[in-house]
Amino acid sequence: MTSGSSKFFGADLIDEDEIEAVVRVVRSRRLFRYYGPEGTASEVAEYEREWASLLRVPHALAVNSGTSSLLCALAALGIGPGDQVIVPAFSWIATVNAIQHLGAVPVVAEVDESLCLDPVAVERAVGPRTRAVLTVHMRGAAADMGGLLDVTRRHGLPLVEDCCQASGASYRGRRLGTLGIAGCYSTQYAKLVSTGEGGVLVTSDQGVYRKAIEVHDCGAVTRGGGGLPTYAGLNLRCTELQAAVGRVQLRRLDRMLEEMRQRHRLLSSVVAELPGLEPRPQNDAAGDSGCALIAMARTSGHAASICEALRRQGVYARQLYRPDVIDLHIYASWAPTIAHVTSAGLPAPDCPRTLALLGRAVHLDVSPLLSQEDVAHIVAALTTAASVPAD
Ligand SMILES: Cc1ncc(COP(=O)(O)O)c(C=O)c1O
Known about the structure:
Layout: H1 16-28, H2 43-55, E1 59-63, H3 66-76, E2 84-88, H4 94-101, E3 105-109, H5 119-125, E4 130-136, H6 145-155, E5 159-162, E6 170-171, E7 174-175, E8 182-186, E9 199-203, H7 206-216, H8 220-223, H9 240-273, E10 278-279, E11 292-296, H10 300-312, E12 318-319, H11 335-343, H12 352-359, E13 361-365, H13 372-386
Parallel strand pairs: 2-3, 2-4, 4-5, 5-8
Antiparallel strand pairs: 1-9, 6-7, 8-9, 10-11, 11-13, 12-13
Helix pairs in contact: 1-9, 2-9, 3-4, 3-7, 5-6, 9-13, 10-12, 10-13
The chain binds pyridoxal-5'-phosphate (PLP).
């Protein structure tokens, strides 16, 4: 299959540089962030400085997963039992699970045409127990940050950004994760910056940063000479080996974005000209990471026919929602959340607009490794698929 055969983004680019980085750390015998043989320095500390510098933000905290970065951000904001956090109906299940693990209740709201949290739906969902809004930049593209910042400011709510699917992307010239109070990244295997497992929290807020350090490391305060802990912290720390790989991967990010954006722009312009299809509307097209081409079909039946026609031509494509498929990116499959929300006395989430939009959405991965021939093949396949009559 042309698209999808090399879909691991950062991990597809692993070469001798990562191997050398790992070997360097193992040879140093410094496998722990906070101490090791005399004369060795922490890779994790450098890795954090490099994330902070790339994103132009004062603080970055490396952790062991994107889920952990979410947990740290929410716990650092003091989110706890009974609090409500507004989230979009389209995200990986980890987003809502992080909220739930703090005893808080995810309030699931509709996405807009960008397939990210709709500020109008947030406005409607705000209630007396709302304590935060957690937006998710899905498939490389920014949510409507202007609208979300406006609604959260008016209600005095912190806005957290889940950037796990949008590494390096930006909104009006600012990298995602730096517009809200905290940004949460994943460096899991299939992400643009990949350490296999891993995550990073970024923030400009000194208080959030300090608290997040304590959440991710139960010994942090005491080890730093600050006396007794103030929070029952965990161990969500990033390892020196992860950081060594991450530093190499991070250096490649901007080049990779350039490569993907080039292919994405070309494919989007083709989709824009095809009958019955249009590219997903964007809040900032130039800032899209370019990792996913999403073509909106007229109906879900039309989207299904397009996917089938693409697959027949060797191009892997999928509909973002099908009622017969369990998909943990769709709120309808978030069984623990549904149970938790209803047991808290709230109505079960119901987001028909999200399902309708995702049902019409045809998704193709856009790897930086797609050759010109691959792209030409996708263009030809899309053109043929668009001529297939909708049922
Ligand atoms: C939107 C979103 N949020 C959170 C996560 C969780 O990240 P991790 O798997 O690193 O815990 C993911 C991972 O795929 C994700 O896509």
